[in-house]
Amino acid sequence: MIYVPVMSLDVYHNFGLEYYLMTEHHFNEPVFMLWSTTPTVMLGKYQDAAAELNVEAVKRNHVKVARRYSGGGTIYTDQGGCQFTLIYPDDRTEIDFSSGLELIQKALNQIGIKATTDSRNDLVVGGRKVSGSAQYVTSGYKLHHGSLLFESNLDLMNQLLNVDPVKLAAKRIASVHQRTVNLNEQEPSWTAADFRENLRQAVYDLTSFQEYHLTADEQARVAEIGQQRFADPKFIYGRQGQGAFQVKRYFQGGGLVKIAYSIYHDQLADVHLTGDFFSNLDAVKFEHALDGTDYDRRRVSNVIRDQLAEDPILGVDADQLVNMLFDHV
């Protein structure tokens, strides 16, 4: 395993570093990174920023907004926690959190924090969430990244994030705060820096990783990617739709799926797919494939099956999406 030290607290730079290591500097063995950010909210690939964020609270508290290339939900990060990234050679395209979560779970256990896996992508301590994960793939490589709460500002997190009532009801909780906990409850004598160093050392003990330091030219390229790809407001805020109909459902093991659409002359139009689900699906391609399709269950089903054949949605099948478009009318 290779360990790449990350000093930057800028989320755009750090997402740029992930992308660079996924697409331009390939290692033949897994790469591991630990990093932190200034106060930031990170949107999932398929989410609508206007629906997920309390925009006024974000502005008032000078919080950065970023969007991941991975699916899943919106998270809050700050210097009181840390992010972990695992990049490894893998030709499989399906979403699978087991290997990445296993390493982090073992490392946490080694430093005295008894974490277990829960549902599709979380680590929990005492039944409360301390870590969420997400993934995306490129040709021959898979990236698994996640967050770890240590002494993060959970009150601010609660102000910044709008969580859909459908999702809260499915999880039988009243707020995000109710389900999350900081790890400093387990180790109150540690600082956030202590936690990161102890975790780094535990991963070293488990893997005997070797450090790799980027050259100045590589650092410049990473900064360029960060600004061009991840700091672009169109990329961050672009997932918005205004269909005449809006349907949403929470699927256990799949997440929240929202579909906005209109019907003109008995055909689908203005289709817009959002949510906190996991997939490698190209949402724009999916939407364009449905636009102009006759509003007929069989024809819509055929289009959706074709789109999901190559890039399925984890925990959600074609029939469930078809039902969303027809059963509420």
From TrEMBL:
It is an enzyme of class 6 (ligase). Residues 26-211 form the BPL/LPL catalytic domain. It holds the Pfam family LplA-B_cat. Keywords: ATP-binding, Ligase, Nucleotide-binding, Transferase. Its EC number is 6.3.1.20. One of its GO terms (molecular function) is ATP binding. It catalyses: L-lysyl-[lipoyl-carrier protein] + (R)-lipoate + ATP = N(6)-[(R)-lipoyl]-L-lysyl-[lipoyl-carrier protein] + AMP + diphosphate + H(+). It comes from the Bacteria. The keyword Phosphoprotein does not apply. Pathway: Protein modification; protein lipoylation via exogenous pathway; protein N(6)-(lipoyl)lysine from lipoate: step 2/2; Protein modification; protein lipoylation via exogenous pathway; protein N(6)-(lipoyl)lysine from lipoate: step 1/2. PANTHER family: LIPOATE-PROTEIN LIGASE, LIPOYLTRANSFERASE 1, MITOCHONDRIAL. This is lipoate--protein ligase. It comes from Lentilactobacillus parafarraginis F0439.
